[in-house]
Amino acid sequence: MARCVELAVENVTKISIDTPEEPAEIGAIERSTSELVIGLVGAVGAGVSTTAKELATLLSRDYGYGEVTIVKISDIIRANAEKVLVDVPATDGSKRILDLQKAGTKLRDKFGDDYLAGKVIEEIGISRHSAGGYEKTQGASLPKPIRRVTIIDSLKHQEESRILRETY
Questions:
Q1: CA–CA separation, 151 vs 148, rounded Å?
Q2: Whose CA is closest to 126, among 108, 104, 150, 103?
Q3: SS3 at position 45
Q4: pLDDT tens across 36-73, in order?
Q5: Peptide bond before 74: cis, by omega within 30 degrees of 0?
Q6: Distances (CA, A) of 25 to 21, 53, 125, 163
Q7: Maximum distance among all Cα pairs of the chain, rounded to whole angstroms
Q8: pLDDT digits 0-9 by tens, 110-134
Q9: How many other β-carbons are positioned within 10 Å of the β-carbon of residue 113?
Q10: pTM of the predicted structure, to 2 decimals
Q11: What ranges in the chain are assigned the alpha helix state H?
């Protein structure tokens, strides 16, 4: 099972990662894959997208993760906005932020507070499957031990964090 990490972002200008063998806040975790799922949390304008890009570079360059993917919650909202009869949000400017907030709220109201995180989990599963990341063992599909990272930009609701922690 992958490890899920949540980072709160507030005007970050430098990223460093300390990776002790057993971090105190996580403890010993038995995992069947070296996959990481990192959810970034931060207010609008806090630098979450910049942090996601820097973190992706760092994990690839310094920690040897061959596949690092950034999943933007705003892209998921944009792709699902019509399900709640909302126009696809603008792509730039301050209207974009308001449109995304409105569409995200309507999606959560209609489908549940964990809906967008569920879509992220779906994307991770599809991506893993496409890359041949499962193996059949006694009729069950189990994740292969591959070094990959998914960085989620940007979680906005506690239920999104909850379902990701339960899954990964």
A1: 10
A2: 150
A3: coil
A4: 999 999 888 899 999 999 999 999 999 999 899 999 99
A5: no
A6: 12, 25, 27, 18
A7: 52
A8: 999 999 999 999 999 999 888 888 8
A9: 16
A10: 0.78
A11: 48-63, 73-80, 94-111, 115-130, 158-167
